[in-house]
Amino acid sequence: MGTQGEAKTPVVAAAAKEIAPRPTRNWRTRLFQGYLVAAVVVFAVLLVGASQFDYFPIDLTITRGVQFFNAGWFGILMGAVSYVGYAPQAWVLVIIIAGLLYAFGLRWEGVAATLVAILASALVTVIKVIVHRPRPGIDLVTVVQQAGASSFPSGHVVHYVVFFGFLFFLTFTLFKPSAARTVVLVILGMLIALVGLSRIYLGNHWASDVAGAYLLGSVLLAASDSFYRWGKTRFFVQQPLAPAEPKTADAQ
Predict the structure, then answer these.
(1) Domain for residue 246, yes or no?
(2) What is the tens place of the pLDDT at every residue in 82-103?
């Protein structure tokens, strides 16, 4: 996969902005901003509800419906999807991926990926302590894997949306279209899409825990994108790959 370092120059970036008409871009911006506001509001509602109720009636219905499908291959898939998000392997993976990005010349990308993962985890930990919602009990659903701490929001889901979502963003924007790029995007997208289902299937979270985590994760991912773009022109601006300030002919 070849990087698109030239896409970071002001001239090319300005040209890229003109691909879509200004009214269309303004409409997309307003739509995205509207989603972020709605996501924050709905998450706040779920947070208050989760702090007052151990679970909602719809949570029990959804979990039993998901767990009704008990094919062997499905259980293995759900376990494998969640496995990546448990400690210590989750953080080992963050270190490895961020280290590879840094080593291969995407230095700011490696640092940013590490920071967004750490900050997202810290925020989830604080929210869990405040809400302190109990996990689904074995008297209500099948608990395939026991998990500690509190239930709202799902730390797995937030981590996958923020970290793997950030990697999806980097892969999509920095690398030229290729079969390898497509495979990476599909894998990252499937992990994000399936992790919520896996947490419900394994009996570790209620559907409202997962929904709240997707909402929170999407807001944090948007913030991560803004943070990345902000730092792109300030840190490692002449890094080997995808520099913010490409080398001129005289500097080469």
Answers:
(1) no
(2) 999 999 999 999 999 999 999 9
What SS3 state is found at 144? coil
Cβ neighbors of 18 (< 8 A, separation 6 or more) are none
- Residue range 172-186, pLDDT digits in tens: 999 999 999 999 999
Q: How many domains does the chain have?
A: 1
Q: Which of 188, 210, 213, 214 is nearest to 197 (CA)?
A: 210
Q: Angle at CA 58, nearest 5°, toward 127 and 41? A: 45
Q: Degrees (nearest 5) of the Cα angle 219, 163, 100? A: 150
Rounded to two decimals, the pTM is 0.88
Q: How many residues does the chain have?
A: 252
Q: What does the alpha-carbon distance between residue 231 and residue 106 come to, in Å, rounded to a whole number?
A: 13
Please give the residue range of the domain that contains residue 119.
Answer: 5-232
Whether residue 247 lies inside any domain: the answer is: no
In a 3-state reduction of DSSP, which class is residue 3? strand
Residues 201 and 104: their CA atoms lie apart, in Å, by 38
**Cα separations in angstroms, 60 against 66, 139, 199, 237, 243:** 10, 11, 14, 51, 50
- The CA distance from 90 to 49, in Å, is 29
